[in-house]
Specification:
The chain has 225 residues and is of the alpha+beta class. The chain contains 10 helices and 6 strands, in the order βαβαβαββαβαααααα.
């Protein structure tokens, strides 16, 4: 069992962050085990606190080594839907990299033992795919972006994506936003400054500014294809 994500990279905020985990299994989890795990996670979520912020996957060790869309359906816990077996998309190239390089061991050997190295080219390709597949459609919709917190999430994500496309590295949210504030066109600076200050400071609605940054990132992703 390993912790990764913001808790491992130094971005964790108790008020807003998920507690990301991966459990490495010897084999595929059975239907009966999925049901039992779902019941367990429901009990944990009902206890409140950080237990309600758990988000993670149960992945067989052979499938964890590298992302393969042909073997990418695993039990997954998310805070906005029931525990279930679901597709793990190209963002799991990025997740594997973070887990390999920064994962915190709860039980087991170092995560590097389970995961092949992820190259800068693979990270760029993964980021571009996520932008094209999610953010070009659902992620840029008015419905998704209407809450202010989701606008901030979008700005953070676009800054990290653009930073990876430019450098081939995965930076923290804060580091990527500071990079983007200086590296991107000045018209995006107000949106980035507000995201850096969130939830403090001026947090007026900025749906159009957020969508403009998403469009800019999508253009960069298409150019990188």
């Amino acid at each position: 069992m390993y912790l990764y994500g913001s808790l491992a990279t130094g971005d964790f905020s108790p008020a807003t962050s998920d507690v990301d985990f991966v459990v490495v299994t010897d084999r595929e989890v059975s239907d009966a085990e999925v049901a039992a795990l779902g019941a367990m996670h429901a009990r944990l979520a009902a206890s409140g606190g950080l237990a309600a912020s758990l988000e993670g996957s149960y992945i067989p060790r052979d499938a964890l080594r590298r992302w393969d869309p042909a073997t990418a359906r695993h039990p997954h816990l998310a805070h906005d839907r029931p525990f279930q077996v679901e597709e793990h998309g190209p963002d799991w190239v990025i997740q594997r990299h973070v887990l390999r390089e920064h994962g915190v061991v709860v039980a087991g050997p170092p995560p590097r033992d389970w995961i092949d190295p992820v190259t800068p080219a693979m990270l760029r390709e993964s980021v571009a795919a996520v932008l094209r597949e999610f953010w070009a459609n659902h992620g840029s919709s008015d419905e998704f972006l209407r809450p202010r917190a989701y606008q901030v999430f979008a700005v953070q994500t676009m800054c990290r994506a653009l930073h990876t496309l430019a450098t081939g590295e995965i930076g923290t949210k804060q580091a990527a936003m500071h990079w983007a504030r200086d590296a991107l066109p000045a018209r995006f600076r107000p949106a980035i400054e507000r995201a850096l200050a969130y939830p403090n400071g001026d947090q007026t609605d900025d749906l159009e500014g957020t969508r403009a940054l998403i469009r800019f990132a999508l253009e960069r992703a298409r150019a990188a294809a």
